[in-house]
Design a protein that fits this description.
4 helices; mainly alpha; single chain; two-stranded parallel sheet
Length: 109
Amino acid sequence: MFLIYTAPDGSPATYSENNVPMKPKYSLPVSLMGIEYGDYAYYDFLIGMDEYNIKNMEKCFGGDPYHKISMLLKRAIEDPWYTGNFEKAYADLDEGVRELLDRLMDKYL
């Protein structure tokens, strides 16, 4: 199980003992086992954080004939477990998710 902590009012926050677990309105299941071959047929979008993710997905799925695989941003999102810069990773993810939402809204609404 993954928990994301926020400020008591639900807003993003840096670490504090006062932070509380986020209660999202919607969520998707996350597998600790990673992707599987059948995931390509199941999902419309397969999003990676860096070129390594993209190459692994293409290898697992035997390519990307329907162009479902893409990076969240046009640049790699550095792994904060290696860089120690969790705030930059959060900012990059926030930027990427907002851009993704804009693209989806433009395409489907």
